[in-house]
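Tutorial handout. Part one gives the primary structure; part two gives the three-dimensional structure as tokens.
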Amino acid sequence: MTVVTGNDRLHQQLQAGAEALALDLNEGQIGQLMDFLALLQKWNKVYNLTAVRDPQEMMTHHLLDSLAAVAPLRRHVAALVGEGRGAVRLLDVGSGGGLPGVVFAICCPEVDVSCVDTVGKKAAFIQQAAVALKLRNLHGVHARVETLAMPFDIISCRAFASLPDFVNWSRSALAAPHGVWLAMKGKHPEDEMAALPADVQVFHVEQLTVPGLDAERCIIWMKPV
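Part two.
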């Protein structure tokens, strides 16, 4: 008789979720995502990286939720490369436990990902994850996003702040004129979109489907005008 462990179930769920999202992840990337989940659980006991404690809930609400944004990100990165932009740099703001930043770094190895957080232990966790998962394209940055001026092609966030605060705080880090903001949101944030500065344009609202999660999700794509 084959005994299916909790870890096996999570592995199967991750594999099925990646297939449902048509991500075509290799076994190494699936392994890195599972190792990241284990790291998150281990460090969370000491550093309180996320309020979610249950591994099953971490899989759906964190990993699969972040994976749902990978295909849209890849599409945008391919367009930038097609324009001859060269190496693409992404800044994940208020990354916390590395969501979605670490997931992006695993699934898009050609993208250089920096995760910025004002909490030192969270930035340290990202650095530890980069070493443990052998991700040379992942960096933890302990800073306030307003102090960063390095030009990034894409600035992302997930459940970080209101859209106006997000774009105002991170504006100095956005590469002009082609840089974009990628904000992962739950329900369509009409009020926040209406409150955006006049020189920021929403150019696409993309609905997301998260495997195993019955909840509204979308990406608000924005650019300076």
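Part three, for discussion. The chain is about 40% helix and 20% strand. The helical segments are 6-20, 27-47, 55-67, 70-82, 101-107, 120-132, 163-170, 190-194.
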